[in-house]
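Follow-up to my earlier ticket, as requested here are the two runs.
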Amino acid sequence: MGYNFYGWEKATVPAITDKYKGITTPKDLYDALKNVWCEYTCAPRLRNEWSKENITLGQCSITAFLVQDIFGGKVYGILRPGGNYHCYNDIGGHVFDLTSEQFGDEVLDYEDNPEQTREIHFEKEEKRLRYEYLKKSLVKYLDGHIPVGS
């Protein structure tokens, strides 16, 4: 399967937990999340633009923190017009962004961005609830399917 998300070539780090059946690399996670991301997991301000054709829209922070749960590393944010941060992951120099496809051909700058913390992001209850929903939905999906990485 081909991938289009930023840094897919470096998305080869191993999982640090076996809590998510069949998820051994970030590519496995991406493959599973394609079946889990939905309008409800999308940021409320972008929901009216979310579609099956743009499944990564509005999913960045909750996805990046889920990646951190499974693979470790740090979450960074690119300041966007309007003052929001687009989150992505850096795991030991492996920089990748499972939700970059929402920007189409726009080239983002993945260098020298501020670290993002879940404490700050999850001060917004709706974001924390979307993150928890994403995690539960992923587990439910994985429990009902053949492990992605097999």
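Run two:
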Amino acid sequence: MSLTDPIADMLTRIRNAITSRHEFVLVPASRTKIAIAKVLKEEGFIKDYEVLKGNTPQRVIKIYLSYTGKKQPALTGLQRVSKPGMRVYCQKGEIPRIYGGLGIAVISTSQGVMTGQQAWKKSLGGEVLCYAW
């Protein structure tokens, strides 16, 4: 099965798993998705992730979701910004702040995938992949 937007598929799977209060979610792997999972882990939105190699040639990312007390998810929202039909780019001075700094913008730069704050400190711009809060 071919997907038009694999990153949007990943974000939707995470959103659906959080809504159902699952402990983990499986997502087909790619370098960009692994980099996004790394950023979400560094920012504390997910517990952990691991890349699994199964019976098929396609690797899978197992993302462990993080919940606070009373099963409240640490990640309350994910929004895809740049889509295949309309790419969204920003320069250093245009990097968005999400909910006054409570959320993050995940940006793909020439030095890899990072948060908007890290890109701003390095004076980099790039493609805005998604927002997380």
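The only thing I checked on run two: The longest strand covers residues 46-53. Let me know what else you need.
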